[in-house]
Amino acid sequence: MKNMKLTMNNTQLLLNQKHYQVYIKIAICLLVIWFTYHFYSSTSIQFSSVIVTNGDHKLPPPLPPANPTLFDQFPVNNTGIPQGSLECDIFTGEWVRDRAGPRYTNNSCNTIEHHQNCMYNGRPDTDYIYWRWSPFGCELPTFDAKLFLQYMRNKSMAFIGDSISRNHVQSLLCILSQVEEAIEVYHDEEYRSKRWFFGSYNFTLSVIWSPFLLKADIFEDNDGHSSGAIELHLDELDSVWVNEFTNFNYIMISGGKWFLKTAVYYDNNTLIGCHSCNKENVTEIEFNYAYRKAIRAVLDFIMKSDHKVYTFFRTTTPDHFENGEWNTGGYCNRTGPFKSGEVNMRDVDKTMRDVELEEFENAKELMNGSVLRLFDTTRLSLLRPDGHPGPYRAFHPFDGKDRNAKVQNDCLHWCLPGPIDSWNDLMMNLLLQG
Ligand SMILES: *[C@@H]1O[C@H](CO)[C@@H](O)[C@H](O)[C@H]1NC(C)=O
Ligand SMILES: *[C@@H]1O[C@H](CO)[C@@H](O)[C@H](O)[C@H]1NC(C)=O
Ligand SMILES: *[C@@H]1O[C@H](CO)[C@@H](O)[C@H](O)[C@H]1NC(C)=O
Ligand SMILES: *[C@@H]1O[C@H](CO)[C@@H](O)[C@H](O)[C@H]1NC(C)=O
Ligand SMILES: *[C@@H]1O[C@H](CO)[C@@H](O)[C@H](O)[C@H]1NC(C)=O
Ligand SMILES: *[C@@H]1O[C@H](CO)[C@@H](O)[C@H](O)[C@H]1NC(C)=O
Ligand SMILES: *[C@@H]1O[C@H](CO)[C@@H](O)[C@H](O)[C@H]1NC(C)=O
Ligand SMILES: *[C@@H]1O[C@H](CO)[C@@H](O)[C@H](O)[C@H]1NC(C)=O
């Protein structure tokens, strides 16, 4: 029903003079590309759109039919308008039944971290893996691992952020492993930053652990036990990713939940205040002040760098602890998605996302050779309370225990396979749009 309504809206839009001209232009453009395609029947996929001119960002360029598989993926209507790329916000939609199920399992993918390996850990329900994200008004084709790797030939991509970034990269690795098993070529001491290489495609994939993206002194072990307030330098970027930045052609970067932690803030090496540290004579500063400074510094650095890069800027990811927080007995035992409108974003998520959207809009103006794309997964993730490990972050958590025994729940990360797999469909869709 909603789809029908949207189609009608599109038709009305077509009558609008301005839009009509745009469609005509696109049709002509497609025709030109079609002829070009016939002249150069190269099988390799050209992906030169990393360098775009700072023109009209509102309208993504039409999908070049550069490869027959693209045609299968994006059926082109006889109007000449490729579906899935125009006049559609791929981040607004609903979760729909997917009988096909996930593209990998705990058996086919051997790189799933234990805490997210819900199948292996004995999660009893399986309904949560039979959903896919469906934007209103357009088709979102499923991620094509082969096509992605062809795009990434001779390229390097990095996921930069916290453990949610690691969660995402694992999902990507599992899907890509159907085409080629990556070789791990690097990991740091704590196994939080890693690098893989896909030999047949000369493609390097990295995940870089930098939860604040800024220079930060963190006094916390791997289990989250803290022995002192985090010291955050609001005017200095984290060298762990900055030093490697020029190696990357694509990055997926994000901030998030770490900014809610107790931290002492420094600017120009001077203590300016802190967030919930309750120290005498230290000014309390809201986390969103630090968050805005961080996001602004990061996007500013990327956009002004001489090194040109295609950047996905991911918005914050919501958690689904109910009846408590992560450390006060909160849990997430729902077994199906919400419909939109059934759940509201929490204040902290809304605050973070608002900062992200505002800073993204500002940074977009600085685009000069690099590409900046908003990867706005907050709302679609909010609809999936069923996709978290919950108690199944641990192996068979209730073995030998009462079903109501108190165990640690994880309602922030995502089961693999799980809803986060859809993020790759979205990523592919944006890549194809250029
Ligand atoms: C393409 O065609 C299908 C059916 O032929 C229609 O449902 C859909 O709305 C069309 N899409 C666009 C973007 O025109
Ligand atoms: C995958 O999970 C199932 C339970 O769903 C388990 O029986 C199987 O041993 C697991 N496979 C691996 C390789 O861990
Ligand atoms: C990848 O690099 C090799 C060696 O430099 C080159 O021969 C090949 O054409 C490149 N392929 C693409 C798709 O850029
Ligand atoms: C691999 O890609 C790099 C660029 O990232 C290029 O310099 C190199 O020549 C490529 N190697 C091969 C064997 O294609
Ligand atoms: C940073 O602090 C130094 C002295 O510690 C001062 O000279 C400099 O002007 C300050 N820079 C800014 C931008 O405030
Ligand atoms: C806080 O400031 C007051 C007044 O300046 C001072 O007397 C007190 O010693 C300070 N406390 C600490 C812990 O620095
Ligand atoms: C755009 O980037 C080029 C190359 O890095 C640089 O020379 C130029 O000054 C930049 N323009 C602006 C307005 O920043
Ligand atoms: C979730 O857990 C609560 C508290 O243990 C229980 O009341 C509720 O029935 C559970 N819901 C589901 C869907 O299992």
Report a brief summary of the structure.
This protein has helices at 2-15, 17-39, 68-73, 145-151, 163-176, 239-242, 287-304, 347-364, 378-382, 422-433; strands spanning 93-97, 131-135, 156-161, 183-187, 194-198, 203-209, 214-217, 230-237, 250-254, 263-267, 270-275, 310-314, 371-375. The protein is an alpha/beta fold and 434 residues long. It has a seven-stranded mixed sheet, sandwiched between helices. Strands 7-8-10-11 form a four-stranded mixed sheet. It has a two-stranded antiparallel ribbon with strand order 1-2.
What key attributes describe this structure?
434 residues, alpha/beta, Rossmann fold, 7-stranded mixed sheet, globular, disordered N terminus, binds 2-acetamido-2-deoxy-beta-D-glucopyranose, membrane, TBL, transmembrane
C-alpha end-to-end distance: 31 Å
The averaged pLDDT comes out at 83
Overall domain count:
2
Largest sheet: 7 strands, mixed
Succession of helices and strands: HHHEEHEHEEEEEHEEEHEHEHH
Query: What ligand molecules are bound, each kind once?
Result: 2-acetamido-2-deoxy-beta-D-glucopyranose
CATH topology of the largest domain: Rossmann fold
Q: What top-tier CATH class of the largest domain fits best?
A: Alpha Beta
What is the percentage of strand-forming residues? Answer: 15-25%
Number of strands: 13
CATH architecture of the largest domain: 3-Layer(aba) Sandwich
> What would you call the structural class?
alpha/beta
Q: Give the low-pLDDT segments.
A: 1-18, 31-85
Q: Determine Rg (CA atoms, Å).
A: 22 Å
What portion of residues is helical? Answer: 25-40%
Enumerate the strands of the largest sheet in spatial order, edge to edge or round the barrel: 4-5-6-3-9-12-13
Quick one: overall form? Answer: globular
